[in-house]
Amino acid sequence: MLDADFIRDNADKVKENCRNRGVPEFPVDRVVAFEAKRKEWEKKRGDTAAQKNAVSAQFAKATPEQRVALKAQAAEFDKEIGILDAELKVIGDDLISNLVVIPNMTHPDAPVGSDAAANKVVAEFGQKRAFDFKPKDHVALCEALDLADFEAGNKVAGQKFYYLKNEAALLEMALVQYAMQTVLKRGYTPVITPDLARVEVLEGIGFQPRDPNPDTRQVYKVADTDLCLIATAEITLGGMHRDQIFEEAQLPLRYVGLSHCFRTEAGAAGRDARGLYRVHQFTKVEMFAFCTPEQSEALHQEIRAIEEEIFKGLGLAFHVIDTCTGDLGGPAYRKYDLEAWMPGRGTGGDYGEITSTSNCTDYQARRLKVRYKGKGFKGTKFVHTLNGTAVACTRALVAILEHYQQADGSVVIPEVLRPLVGKDVITPRKK
Q: Can you say how many angstroms the Cα of residue 276 is from the centroid of all Cα atoms in its chain?
């Protein structure tokens, strides 16, 4: 979340940013009002506590009769402090509830627009493959090659769950190992994270697990606990250093995490929901970094470059999108998406998102209370956090199967994955 004092001092800019992002701007005025009220009541509490301390200081030299009176005065001050603390709790909760819905500020170079149509292509890699036959989509390829069982997934867990089988299972494991090894070469620490996290950790990252509307809630809550299934390892990697203070020399910290991801939105209809592209559960390798504000821009470009390296290595055609203001998530200051060409998408092929990387500045760290201290300043500062998908296995599988399909129904395995899969081609099974 943004700093309340920053919002107060830059209210017009914050409102403009809200308008550019397509979110309500009225919480800005509420934050300004609640913060002013909070400071007023904090002063009252401080003054009352000082009065109580002054009474307590007289106790040692007081006569027995005077002590009785002093105790009565101290008790009244304690009662007043209790009332002030209760009111401050209400004010603080109101302040937070409005702060968390105000999005991060936006990089000045990010495209301004209301939806994905305003996104800007900033780089292109590879060539869209020309087919001399009508390409199939990945669902047809999975059925023909016995790579996934959507019917069994539906019977066991419900719609948009699936079983990966045969070479598809091997491809997922190969993708994880390939992505991990690529990122490790850049100095990232490998981590396998929990698949569950506490509600307050999700809120610190920017999710809203307490949303009472099941249609807009993004994550699954575990009944009778304060836990949720994570939607991304960004949650658990970001929460790993919650409430910690680092020395500036320790930064940046770079991690690459492996987890399963669970998302409720997969039930949406349309081509984006077909097959493996939008599902309730998938495996993902995620990059995450903690750094100083001076390091975050370079780190963002580094994570983007690693994503590009991974998908260039897979031989896919893809482009990079600079995401516009109206398509940014709340925590992101700037976000790049990688979109791969998927020949079976729609009627004649189209691009589909395969990874993203976001610079969240100190928006997440402020709620998670991750700070650092250094020699050049007093006190502590909030770190900057960044995240980026190394590979989301299901979407990478969609792009690979559709791009590398052959006229005889087989699928060529990308060269970098062949040693990990143990074969060069997925061929139709004999009936």
A: 21
pLDDT, one tens digit per residue, over 42-88 is 999 999 999 999 999 998 888 888 999 999 999 999 999 999 999 99
Whether residue 231 has pLDDT greater than 80: yes
Q: Specify the residue for token string 């691009």.
A: 351
Q: 200 in helix, strand or coil? A: helix
Choosing from 99, 130, 148, the residue where a domain stops is 99
pLDDT tens, residue by residue, 293-351: 999 999 999 999 999 999 999 999 999 999 999 999 999 999 999 999 999 998 889 99
β-strands 120-125, 318-322: how paired? antiparallel
Q: Indicate which CATH number applies to the domain containing 11.
A: 1.10.287.40
Q: Which two tokens stand for residue 205?
A: 């990252």
Q: What is the pTM of this model?
A: 0.92
Residues 238 and 244 sit within 8 Å (Cβ to Cβ) = no
User: Does residue 69 share a domain with residue 137?
Assistant: no
Q: Mean pLDDT across the stretch 15-34? A: 96
- Together in a domain, 170 and 276: yes
Extract the tokens encoding 235: 């949650």
Start-end of H helices in 114-247: 138-145, 150-157, 166-184, 199-205, 233-239
One-character DSSP codes across 50-118: HHHHHHHHTTTT--HHHHHHHHHHHHHHHHHHHHHHHHHHHHHHHHHHHHTTSPPP--TTSPP-SSGGG
User: Which residues span the domain enclosing 59?
Assistant: 4-99
pLDDT value at 267 more than 70: no
Whole-angstrom Cα Rg for the chain: 27
Question: Is 311 in contact with 354 (CB distance < 8 Å)?
Answer: yes
User: Which residues, at least 6 apart from 40, have a Cβ–Cβ distance to it below 8 Å?
Assistant: none
Question: Strand 281-291 vs strand 318-322: parallel, antiparallel, or unpaired?
Answer: unpaired
DSSP structure string for 306-373? HHHHHHHHTT--EEEEE--GGG--TT-SEEEEEEEEETTSTTT-EEEEEEEEEE-TTHHHHHHT-EEE
Tokens 């719609």 identify what position? 159
